[in-house]
Amino acid sequence: MGHKEPMTIASALRQIQDRKLILPAIQREYVWKPSQIIRVFDSVMRGYPVGSFLSWKVMPETVSQFKFYGFMTEYSAFDNRHNPVIDIPTDREVVAILDGQQRLTSLNIGLRGTYAYKNHGGWANKSWSYPERRLHLNLASEAPENELGLKYHFQFLTKKDVDASADDDSKKWLPVSEIFDAPDTAKLIQLLAKYEVGNDPKASALVSKLWEAVHKTASLHFYEEDDQDIERVLDIFVRVNSGGTVLSYSDLLLSIATAQWEGDARAAVHGLVDALNQTGNGFNFSRDTILKSGLMMADVGDIGFKVKNFTTANMSKLEADWDAMSKSLQIAVGLLSDFGLSDGSLTADSVLIPVAYYVHHRGLDHSYRQSPKSREDREALRSWVLRSLIVRGIWGSGLDTLLRDLREVIKKQGASAFPVVEIERAMSLRGKPLAVTDALVDDILNLSYGKARTFAVLAVLFPHVDTRHQFHVDHVFPAALLDRKVLRRQKNEDGTARFSPEEIDDLLDLRDRLPNLELLPGLENIGKSAKIPEEWLAAEYPSAHDRSAFLERNALPLSLPLSVDEYRKFFGERSAKLTTRIHNLLKSQSPDPSNTNASELVDLDEELSEGDDSD
């Protein structure tokens, strides 16, 4: 591995333009945010080093064995986040970047391209929420005071933004791309004249400083590997990009899969992830979860993050069965949606993995989601999924070991039905029982409005709710009547405050706790609004039988509060009813694991990795 002559930023970007500097398929995608790009340009202006780069000289005989991508130029968080695939002629050598892609892409976007990110408060699924922005340098003043310690005022702006600041003397914006488009001093002089800053010492100094940093200063230092052994290059890539720790699971898996699959693995995975995340009310599954699901379904023995697991043979298994795996994942995500889950209420994405494996193992199709014949099995699966999301720590540390155990149980016992008893037994042996304890009951009762686990808990506790339809988490006693301002205005007959500040704080805390929450159909909840529950119930269910059935279904006391004064009593009675229901519905179907020494079963690699995510 040799050290090349340093080059200027402009020289590197021209090589990117000419496709002489490219990205190998093992590279992860561009992930930097606008603030990170701005920090790089601030460093460039200040003469700070931006780090060294590692490249790989790919000879003509190796080019045909690999896939390559171009650098991102017009990035859009809406519809252009993936690097373009490029075809490289096999009669010439190229240089591929192994380390430094994020920095080079940032320089490329800032000096040659655009960055489109979502406007604050804009619609996530509308293109107009993502206007095209170019990087600009303010020639009128330095950066405002900021926590990042930036000296120079760089900012991504739309044309509308620039026009709006035309009359602001503290802002004079120069598109940074015009620096790149001025390759010599003659063009630099023309640029100064164009922006009428030739006679402004501070402004012209800023333009000249950036121009020098881009065109004259050889600030980019490259180390180049010329060995054509792909395995060696992959090992270098992993070590350099890991900084002493392993790369993320999906980065390496997708990198190797892309390099080894006959088709376009990157496009296949991205397309599937996008499709899954559009299911129902929307999810946010990552490549990590989807690819780990693939390894599970491919029955790869060890699904842990170890380089030895990412062999050509394992990748071939994944590619050969990818279509069937994709179908199983689509059904599994559909089931989670049927269970009333979405991005906002799914507290652990990893629960998808055993569900997908069960679907794949049985070869189930979409009819399973609706068929009356599978109703009992679906309910068993639904109950287990929701209970596993309620109990803390199930999908945390030791995940790979737990998943392997669940896979073995499903393979042996899941041919015709979801093996709940056997699965819970295996979970208990791993120290992850779905058992009801006093601590769990307290934890559940203290869940609050708006938290992801709250919906899952309510869906489990009230199985009459058909979560395939839209249900809202509703306050039994209206939140509007327990508002701080409303409570402060309430007076006793003698004009004194009815509630002390401490009592108000306590009522506000109890207002949003689980004992004051229920699931109601969306339209029914809208109609209920801020009505007193007793009055709403009488209007909605005039029949005494129907009223009693509603109260029983929702574990509500016979007498509902008519005022704030009765709220505490109601809260206590509902807490007691929910406690009973929690014990009845969440009780584990596995034997008591108290005599099992679960620690003996912990995988050594997992034990050593404990705490890696806590930094």
Short description:
With 615 residues, the protein is of the alpha+beta class.
Q: End-to-end distance, in Å?
A: 33 Å
* Tally of alpha and pi helices: 27
The major β-sheet equals: 7 strands, mixed
Helix content: 40-55%
Radius of gyration: 30 Å
Portion in beta strands: 5-15%
Q: How many strands? A: 14
Class computed from helices, strands and strand pairing:
alpha+beta
Tell me, rounded to a whole number, the average pLDDT: 84
Output the strand order for the largest sheet.
1-12-3-7-2-4-6
Poorly predicted parts:
244-249, 591-615
Shape: flat
Task: Give a written overview of the molecule.
The chain has 615 residues and is α+β, with helices and mostly antiparallel strands. It is 46% helix and 9% strand. The protein is built from 27 helices and 14 strands. Strands 1-12-3-7-2-4-6 form a 7-stranded mixed beta sheet. Helix 10 crosses helix 12, helix 14 packs across helix 15 and helix 16 (375-390) crosses helix 20. The longest helix is centred in the C-terminal third of the chain and has 19 residues, at 567-585. The protein is flat. The model is unreliable at 244-249 and 591-615 (pLDDT under 50).
List its traits.
flat; 14 strands; five-stranded mixed β-sheet; alpha+beta; 46% helix; 615 residues
Give the secondary structure arrangement, pairings included.
Blueprint lengths: L1 E2 L5 H9 L3 E4 L9 H12 L6 E7 L1 H4 L4 E2 L4 E3 L8 E2 L7 E6 L1 H12 L1 E3 L15 E7 L15 E4 L1 H6 L8 E3 L1 H4 L4 H10 L6 H15 L5 E5 L4 H13 L6 H12 L4 H13 L9 H11 L14 H9 L1 H17 L13 H11 L12 H16 L8 H15 L6 H10 L8 H8 L6 H10 L9 E5 L8 H6 L11 H11 L5 E5 H7 L4 H8 L3 H10 L13 H19 L18 H6 L6
Parallel strand pairs: 2-7, 3-12, 5-8
Antiparallel strand pairs: 1-12, 2-4, 3-7, 4-6, 8-9, 9-10, 9-11, 13-14
